[in-house]
Amino acid sequence: MPPKSKPDTSGFEKLKKDLSAGKPGQLYIFHGEETYLRDHYLGRLREAILTGGLGEFNRHNIGAKEMSPHALEEAVDCLPMMAERTLVEVADFDLFRAGEKEEYIRILSNLPDYCCLVFVYDVLEYKPDARTKLAQAVKAHGTAVNFPRQGQRELTDWVRRHFKALGKDIDPRLCGELIELCGDLMHNLQQEISKIAAYAKGDHITRADIEAVAAPQLSAVVFRIADAIGEKNFDRAAATLGELYQMQKTPYEILSALGKQMRQLYSARLALAGGKGSGYVAQLWGMRYPADRLMSSARRFSLPWCRRAVVRCAQTDLAMKSTGQDAKELLTTLLLELANTA
Prior knowledge:
single chain, alpha/beta, 16 helices, globular
């Protein structure tokens, strides 16, 4: 698996400059994993354009089912009412798999100055084909804005600011633990921050506050299972497995996460054998936070054990899906085997 490349943030920077200057462009495509940021900047775009006049009257929404060159052209051609500009939002329409591409190229290449057109990719993945005339038209006349997951420094600052707005303070190191526990997507973190701040009695957030009310993501709990296996502590691994069942996770979901964890451990062990550090593994998997912990955990296991664990997870997955055996029993047997052979 080749290391993952860093996401392109040039469109994001361009959008921020446009908004700071008070001069939004004519065409944007919003996409990416960080939906909190996407919605935030979509809101800022609305505020910048739908000012004065009749406000929302100058906003036109087109759903994927209603979308066509005719519908788009009608919306684009609508003159602003008692305002300078209009905003046209197109939701989850796969522009690059649509028919009548020449018509869309014509419309995108001739947007009126008063119109700002935004394609928002939410459920759909944005997959442009750079070789096509349509992609070239988008590049020439608009900006594709990727909202990627944020880096550790940016996200830590953001978490601290949100706690501060709620009258609480949190240590940067504890921020890292919260992000590792609950994931690095802002929308989910915002909900967890609100819960923790409401629960905490003091002005300073503690680890106990987080552990009391934060909802951990599946991968964080599975990491604890891997730690227990590394210590040959089957009882703790089984207890953690029970926590996942209480979270309404199925054996199939748990095994999928465990299989990924074992593959990450295997790659980390190979990296150690090759003299490579956590930075390489983090880039390989697109990880931001648990890479150091992963390397530390990998040192507990031998390379043959990691290889065998990956194979046994795959074999158990096949057995779950094809033999009719009890899925929970298969998963428990796998954990017992891994713990006994670690």
